[in-house]
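Reading group handout, session on sequence-to-structure problems. Before we discuss, look at one worked example. The prompt was deliberately terse, the way you'd type it at a terminal:

> structure C4-dicarboxylate ABC transporter substrate-binding protein

The input record follows.
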Amino acid sequence: MKKLSLLRLVASLLGSALIATTTQAKDFRLGLLTPPQHIWSQAASAFAADFEQHSQGRHKVALFPAAQLGNEAQMLQQLQTGALDMAFLTNAELSNRAPELGALYAPYLVQSVEQAGQLLTSPEVQQLLDQLPARAGVVGLAFGTGGLRQILSRTPVHSASDLKGRKLRVTPIEALRDFYSHLGAAPTPIPLSGVFDALANGQVDAVDMDLELIWGLKFYEKADTILLSKHMMWPVVGVVSARVWRELSPEDRQALQTLMRKHLAQTFTAYIAKEREWEQAARGSGKRIVEVGPEFFAAAIEAWEAKWRQKAPALPALRQLAKSLQ
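And the output record:
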């Protein structure tokens, strides 16, 4: 009887501990690079409200947009220590820790935002996130997207040779630096907050950017040519600190994953509609518009592929998968 009573006591204590774990309130902090009006920031805000409602007010998520907590490298360090709970990070920063993710920057891997959505939500691409806890100290829950990359130039661009020797602003990742180095340009990392002034004062000659920022942050005002190239997609990843993740109940983990996937999936819908609007606005801006395709970058693409097939073994399979998309 004593043994049975002891077992009942242990079971009761374990049950109480589980209830305490699943009901413990927590105020989470979510950092991201983009300004409040950006589609990623809006998705983060909707996610935060949904998660609080789902938890019946037990959990809250405070947002820190516009790099309030530092650049992405600094935010990733905070995630690794548990000082930051979660973030929407560009795949760019994560690929610096997990080179396999660099395959997602293969030039002309997709032809549209629609295809980017299909590719990034496929099981094959979702599996790429499995390496993040060991390599980056975060748990990757879902992909979203930014717009396709374009080039904005202070001076006219008629051929790829017009970009040779030009200082071209890039996000500081190896995949992008390689692409523009093979093109003969001088890739120049500059924080997003400094791009407008860098264009205005000639610190850079051109920028690699999507139409949302080219138009929304008025970068086009300091340029002559908008090169509509659509040469790369630009994924975002919803992540949670691996340290924080280990402390969460199974119920909270499931809710976080479900809701992050839901709201990051909405970035695909948003960009599909908005990309058309921004392109029409760009065409009506009075700036020189030059439309180019893979042939414009042919030599650079060939050199990039040769290097990245070695660095990211998943690249051939991704190319094959992308070809099957409608």
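Points for discussion. First: Residues 9-23 have pLDDT under 50 and may be disordered. Second: Residues 250-283 form the longest helix (34 residues).
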